[in-house]
Amino acid sequence: MANLMLAQVSQEIRVLIHEDERLIHFQNMGNGNTATAPSQRLEMQLLRSGEWAGRIYELYCETWHCQQKPFSPQFLRAACQHAIRMLISARVGSDTFELDGEQARTRQHNAEWLKSLKTSFGQDMESTNGSKQQKSMPTLWSICWLQHLIIQLSTG
What we know:
Blueprint: H1 2-27, H2 36-66, H3 73-106, H4 111-128, H5 140-155
């Protein structure tokens, strides 16, 4: 059951990412600043990855609840450490690989700038995952824990 729902969520998010990429490309047509589009794409990927991770966590909670298993800190840790961390790691690898491929084809960007952009993106993604604390954005860990508490309160 969970695998089918995971595939559906993944497909929905991929469609949204593709639409966002097309919009970013359209909005930057004729823009002389070639650094704008890659930065906007990575910012969008960061936001969509957070949405994707949240949906995966909700799906695991729903599946866990349907199986009538009690929610516990161990469940929370397992869901965040395995499923969500794997997603974040895959997204960082995929998105930076895509930028590398684009750079190899076009030679449009300064290599040092691109390297720092990818490094910053990887750090931002990891802080979304909760391995670093960032003041402006609540970590995924805290969001998961809050959802867990809400579920506990609503189920009695």
